[in-house]
Write a structure and sequence with these properties.
The complex is a heterodimer of chains A (91) and B (109).
Chain A lengths: L5 H5 L3 H35 L10 H9 L2 H21 L1
Helix pairs in contact in A: 2-3
Chain B lengths: L1 H6 L11 H44 L9 H36 L2
The chains are: A mainly alpha (91), B mainly alpha (109).
Protein name (chain A): Tim10/DDP family zinc finger-domain-containing protein
Organism (chain A): Lipomyces kononenkoae
């Protein structure tokens, strides 16, 4: 696979450069989402899967991951902390 | 910047194609090449991340006392654990994206 060279980029016209920038931004946003999903899966797998007895996610584990809300409660925790810190900073 | 490109178009070796036609196809191929490279890098880093997480989690769960080699039971556990982790990834992914969508509706009604 060829490397990206500076020369290639300077050969692009302004419209293409703008389009590429947009492309990178949107891929970057997607990559951030993916990296959050990696983080949450790691977190929730540790919390919700106590031992490996079968090769598929059991009902109880699935409930832990989505209904008993491993992800949702983590986000709520995060939002709670953000609010608390921003309140204490306003004082 | 765009103007300097027109002036610097010294790479032409055939006079048969019109200037603008060759320029735009060249630009397009550079652009598509860059985009493909970016996508490939992202896919690679995503796969690397997944492999590292599965290794860590399943090592922890399956290899309780490391022996001189992987036992049949170890391999079976690792196999099930990997399957399970990927399923978990899909569940979390759906759940998280649903939450992100509902939150963004709250912010921008």
């Amino acid at each position: 696979m060829s490397q990206i060279s500076k020369n290639d980029i300077t050969q692009l016209d302004e419209a293409s450069q703008a389009e590429l920038l947009k492309f990178v931004e949107s891929e970057n946003a997607k990559a951030k989402l993916q990296s959050s999903i990696h983080l949450f899966t790691d977190l929730c797998f540790k919390k919700c899967v106590p031992s490996i007895t079968t090769g598929s996610v059991s009902q109880a584990e699935s409930t832990c991951m989505q209904l008993a809300n491993c992800v949702d409660r983590f986000l709520d925790t995060n939002i709670f902390v953000v609010n608390k810190i921003s309140q204490s900073m306003q004082k | 910047m765009a103007f300097s490109l027109f002036g610097g178009s010294d790479k032409k070796d055939t006079g048969a194609v019109t200037l603008s036609g060759e320029d735009s196809s060249n630009v397009n191929s550079i652009k598509e090449n860059l985009q493909a490279q970016i996508l490939q890098e992202i896919a690679l880093s995503n796969a690397t991340e997944l492999i590292s997480k599965i290794s860590n989690n399943c090592y922890e769960k399956c290899i309780v006392t490391p022996g001189s080699s992987l036992s049949a039971a170890d391999t079976a556990c690792l196999d099930q654990c990997s399957e399970k982790y990927i399923q978990a990834w899909n569940i979390i992914s759906r759940r998280y994206l649903a939450r992100v969508q509902s939150e963004s509706k709250n912010i921008i009604p």
